[in-house]
Amino acid sequence: MIGCAMGETTLTELDDIEALNRAYRARLLRFVAYSTGDVDLAETVVQDCLLKAYNGRESFRGECSVYTWLAHIAGNLVRDHQRTRRFQFWRRVQKTGPDLSELAGTLASGESSAETQMLARERAREVSAALETLSENQRRIFLMRFVDEMELQEICQATGMRMSTVKTHLHRAVKAVRLRLGGRA
Amino acid sequence: MEDHREGNAVHLSDEQFAELLMGGSPARVQAHLAECAECRAEAERVGGAIGDFSEQSRLWAEQWAAARALRTAAQTPRAERASGLAWLVWLVRPQAWAGAALAIALAVGIGVTIEREHSRTTQADAAKTQAGVAAARVEATTVQAQAAKAQAGATMVQTKAAVQAEAAVQSATLKADNALLSAIDGELRADESAPASLYGLAADASGEGTKSAKRISN
Q: B2 CB near a chain A CB, below 8 Å?
């Protein structure tokens, strides 16, 4: 468990589950949904994660950011779910990752043209497809770094991995995405 | 850190490329990008794609979370209504009435069945009780019969004793009567000798000529 010396702001944030929900739900949901490829599971994990964090806020010692702590909890919950045979079954039967193509209209690009938006959607879809070819750890670390924009040290704290391990996973993930996007092998 | 060689050109290695995408840009990498249009174009394409993915996934997550919040907000008043005016909502629902009717019918059916079963049980109990009473009566009758038999036995014993006593009394009376008759007979014989001698009559030695008192016997 990650611990921290709690600051006043952090204490207030953790003591109010509604504030936790408002501040971190969407971010956690994105991370878990793209980590697992399962939106329903992501909903469940995020709910459990926020509740677990709130109930266990006494153990948070402030040695990392709240989000890093939450990502750590969420990662453990995802692993727990993925270990279950039921999840393995449904994972094989139905890969239900968030469909980015349905989000075409949500792309906030009021100034960009329809063609630019279409190209952006296509590129995002390619990245999404590349993520499906990654291992669980590679995908999780890639998302933490490039989607959540976490520092490498924070990723180490959230995953419990050494820096060298994190970098290795990240390099392999970037290479896979590059190849998918037509880069050099 | 090794450069990636492709033909005669030297390009960024995977590690350098990853470092570049992660925001690290050592002078050597920057120098290479300034000279290599191919690596620069690839860095822009991959970096842009990852940026697009990040942006779209962020928007998707925010919309999803907002939609969930709306769903939750929409469910909360419904829950409050359900708690406060549930009975009113229930009244205007035909399904609720149908459900209630079904429940009542089931309850009545179950009640009737239970009552019937109860009646059967009661009747069976009554029959059993009657049988018990009859058995008790039979037993009582048997006991009475035995008592009567015993009484009859006792009566017979009493009767026998009485008969014996009466016989004894009769026997004693008979003996007394016979004794009295014998005494009377003796007196009569003594009176008869004097008149016979007077008139010259000879007395019969066997005594046959004299009358004696008749003896009584049973």
A: no
Do the domain assignments include residue A168? no
Give the C-alpha distances (Å, rounded to integers) separating A16 from A51, A137, B67.
11, 31, 21
Neighbours of A81 (CB within 10 A): 20
Between B18, B60, B68, which is nearest A106 by CB? B60
Closest CA to B68 of A15, A161, A42: A42
Q: Taking CB atoms and an 8 Å limit, are A170 and B22 in contact across chains?
A: yes
Number of domains chain A contains: 1
Q: Over the stretch A23-63, which tens digit does the pLDDT of each residue have?
A: 999 999 999 988 888 888 889 999 999 999 999 988 888 88
Question: Alpha-carbon distance B61 to B43, whole Å?
Answer: 27
What residues make up the domain containing A44?
A: 1-98
Of the candidates A143, A132, A137, A117, the one whose C-alpha atom is nearest the C-alpha of residue A180 is A132
Comparing CB atoms, the residue among B6, B48, B65 nearest residue A184 is B6
CATH number of the structural domain spanning residue A57: 1.10.1740
Whole-model pTM? 0.56
d(CA A172, CA B113): 74
User: Can you tell me the distance from the alpha carbon of A60 to that of A39, in angstroms, rounded to the nearest whole number?
Assistant: 28
- Quick one: tokens of B116? 């019937």
Instruction: Tell me the three state secondary structure of residue A43.
Output: helix
Q: Kindly provide the ipTM of the predicted complex, given to two decimals.
A: 0.79
